[in-house]
């Protein structure tokens, strides 16, 4: 038996499960239905899932539902009960019971006091905001990646990352030290959510084989960038972008280059509490070495 092929086959089957979950978070997710999607025994498949991914299927569903919920709480005015239903919870009470232990506060309090609020207050007051939001300007070496395009809400790019990783593993390109990088081409305030374009990318080793479809090779970096390190749930990053563009860039003397922004995810949401997630936001600059005055 080819052990490598067998491992890849399980990865492929379980990636269908995670893709299905991403597409059906607002619905009831029955374990037998997920076993059918995976084409695996309903008696054993979830044990295989936990062994490969390091978390139970129940934890995956809860993590993704709550992450989507933070996006609605931070970036919309939808009532909590509607947020709950969009995330697969029957009512606000069940959503609150799941949300509070993970985020350390109720959904209502998170909407009012989450880190996204600090960025917006800093922008409104015209100041630099909390000292933790320092911006570094540096030359970023070029990195080669392979990825999968995503169209739709940026917070749902996780599905593309799952597909990209599975394809990388199937082609023998996956490595423990790969960088996970998201590229974002459109302004979510100017483009309808369903039309937003992005790409989930994983870094390649210098001596690897050429990635095969559906993976698309591409490069990032090789330019000066403003780098903002963000700590906290991914849903709060939209406010960080508002501060980066609306306060830092316009006062910095730098000019944004005609290249998309990208994000480098520094730890894994499967085993990292939401408030400890680290992401570097890269804003390419025309010439980072010479800011205008």
Folded structure, characterized:
- Strands 1-6-8-7-3-4-2-5 form an 8-stranded antiparallel β-sheet, with helices on one face.
- It is α+β, with helices and mostly antiparallel strands.
- It is built from 10 helices and 8 strands.
Largest sheet entry: 8 strands, antiparallel
- The order of strands across the largest sheet is 1-6-8-7-3-4-2-5
Note the gap between the termini. 66 Å
What's the assembly state of these chains? single chain
Helix content: 40-55%
What is the residue-averaged pLDDT?
89
Approximate strand percentage: 15-25%
Q: Shape, please?
A: globular
Order of SSEs: HHHHHHHHEEHEEEEHEE
Structural class: alpha+beta
Number of helices: 10
Radius of gyration: 20 Å
Ranges with pLDDT <50 over ≥5 residues? Answer: none
Count of distinct strands? 8
Summarize the model shown:
Helix content is 42%, strand content 18%. By secondary structure, it is α+β, with helices and mostly antiparallel strands. Helix 1 crosses helix 2, helix 5 packs across helix 6 and helix 8 runs parallel beside helix 10.
């Amino acid at each position: 038996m080819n052990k490598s092929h067998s491992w890849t086959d399980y990865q492929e089957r379980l990636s269908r499960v995670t893709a299905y979950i991403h597409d059906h978070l607002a619905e009831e997710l029955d374990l037998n239905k997920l076993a059918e999607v995976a084409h695996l025994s309903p008696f054993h498949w979830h044990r295989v899932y936990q062994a490969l991914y390091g978390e139970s299927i129940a934890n995956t569903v809860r993590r993704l539902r709550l992450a989507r919920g933070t996006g609605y709480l931070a970036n919309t005015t939808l009532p909590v009960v509607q947020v709950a239903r969009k995330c697969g919870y029957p009512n606000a009470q069940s959503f609150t019971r799941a949300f509070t232990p993970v985020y350390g506060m109720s959904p209502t309090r998170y909407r009012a006091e989450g880190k996204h609020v600090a960025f917006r207050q800093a922008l409104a007051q015209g100041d630099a905001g909390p000292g933790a939001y320092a911006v570094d300007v540096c030359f970023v070496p070029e990195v080669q990646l392979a990825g999968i395009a995503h169209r739709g809400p940026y917070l749902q790019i996780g599905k593309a990352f799952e597909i990209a990783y599975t394809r990388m593993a199937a082609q023998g390109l996956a490595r423990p030290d790969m960088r996970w990088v998201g590229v974002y081409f459109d302004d979510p305030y100017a483009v309808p959510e369903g039309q937003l374009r992005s790409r989930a990318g994983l870094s390649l080793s210098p001596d690897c084989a050429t990635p095969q479809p559906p993976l698309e090779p591409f490069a990032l970096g090789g330019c000066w960038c403003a780098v903002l390190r963000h700590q906290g749930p991914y849903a709060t990053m939209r406010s960080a972008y508002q501060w980066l563009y609306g306060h830092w860039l316009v006062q910095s003397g730098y000019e944004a280059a005609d290249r998309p922004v990208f994000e480098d995810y520094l730890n894994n949401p499967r085993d990292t509490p939401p408030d400890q997630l680290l992401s570097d936001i890269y804003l390419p600059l025309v010439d980072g070495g010479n800011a205008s005055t």
